[in-house]
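Journal club side-thread
Mid-discussion, someone asked how the predicted structure for our own chain would compare to the paper's figures. Pasting it here so we can look after the session.
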Amino acid sequence: MNDIYMLTDMAILTRIGEKLKTVRLKQNITQQSLAEAANVSLSTVKKIEKGEIRSFDAFLRILRTLGQLDVLQQLVEEEQLSPSEYYNMVQTSKTNQRKRAVGKLKTEKQEESAW
């Protein structure tokens, strides 16, 4: 497979749609049955299989119904920080806090009187 970063967004969506269609067919599931089981419309299934993924919710429902949610596993795993990593992160956030301005904005009249 090509490096995913070299593909356009549309190419990625098209490949995902094709893959879902292949998985559905391997499981011998009709588009209508998938739509009913995933609680989405038949037109949504058809669009997703063409790469027209407009609803992330519908996409997740279809992945779940086809038993393919594991492709998202890496995105939903919680990252475990060591105590030292956590300490460094907290210290960095404390030192990089935003500073607030203390002066007031001058009005137009104040600026005119300054000249």
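Post-session note: DSSP finds seven helices and no strands in the chain.
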